[in-house]
């Protein structure tokens, strides 16, 4: 039998302004509060959405300047993970374990349309790989049981939150075979779900549909 995990996907509304200073420290403190709350409720993993520290405002003169201090906030998240004994998925790039160690990092392969004007293909990590099923197939070949997709727009889906009427999707959720979404917030506001995830359902689905076995066949 595969294990149980308690997952905490979050919806966070980062500061968003073209004309005024971005509030990266305030956005970090907001994320830290979610991480601490998730740990206090016994979560194994807290997932933060893409651009949760800066939003996506490349026209703001501070945006790329703040990108240069990414290491400072990575270290802060590592410290939080270590102090509270919780794993953290940071933005799109880093998986931090409950000892504060970075056990995996990822560089986005496919850039979202508006990002291409500002980011090189080999540059900073962002979101749009969700649209390409090949990435999911590769993960299946390597034996992945959980796929995490932190995004700014809208599986295991963690999205940026925002104010009502501003077009934020806010569909952060954990989904499994047969059932679909186990939980989501259901509004455009900020918040966090606590989801008990039983991976045993994957064995049931694989026994019936043999999707992993068929995809991994050499022929």
Automatic annotation (TrEMBL):
Protein name as catalogued: Carbon-nitrogen hydrolase
Source organism: Lineolata rhizophorae
Sorted UniProt keywords: Hydrolase
CDD domains reported for this sequence: nitrilase
Domain of life: Eukaryota
Domain CN hydrolase: 20-106
InterPro entries: Aliph_Amidase/BUP (IPR050345), C-N_Hydrolase (IPR003010), C-N_Hydrolase_sf (IPR036526)
PANTHER family: CARBON-NITROGEN FAMILY, PUTATIVE (AFU_ORTHOLOGUE AFUA_5G02350)-RELATED, NITRILASE C965.09-RELATED
Pfam family name, one: CN_hydrolase
GO terms for MF: hydrolase activity, acting on carbon-nitrogen (but not peptide) bonds, in linear amides
């Amino acid at each position: 039998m595969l294990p149980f995990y308690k997952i905490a996907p979050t919806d966070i509304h980062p500061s968003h302004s073209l004309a005024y200073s971005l509030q990266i420290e305030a956005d970090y403190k907001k994320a830290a509060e979610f991480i601490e709350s998730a740990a206090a409720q016994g979560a194994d993993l807290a997932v933060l959405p893409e651009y949760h520290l800066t939003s996506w405002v490349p026209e703001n003169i501070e945006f790329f300047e703040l990108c240069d201090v990414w290491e400072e906030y990575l270290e802060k998240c590592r410290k939080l993970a270590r102090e509270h004994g919780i794993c953290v998925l940071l933005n799109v790039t880093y998986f931090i374990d409950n000892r504060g160690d970075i056990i995996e990092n990822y560089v986005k392969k496919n850039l979202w349309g508006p990002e291409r004007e500002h980011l090189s293909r080999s540059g900073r990590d962002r979101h749009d790989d969700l649209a390409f099923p090949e990435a999911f197939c590769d993960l299946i070949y390597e034996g992945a049981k959980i796929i995490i997709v932190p995004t700014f727009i809208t599986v295991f889906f963690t999205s940026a939150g925002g104010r009502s009427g501003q077009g934020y999707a806010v569909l952060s959720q954990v989904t499994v075979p047969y059932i679909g979404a186990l939980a989501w917030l259901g509004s455009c506001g900020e918040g966090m779900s606590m989801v008990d995830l039983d991976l045993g359902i994957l064995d049931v689905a694989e026994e019936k549909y043999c999707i992993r076995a068929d995809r991994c066949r050499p022929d």
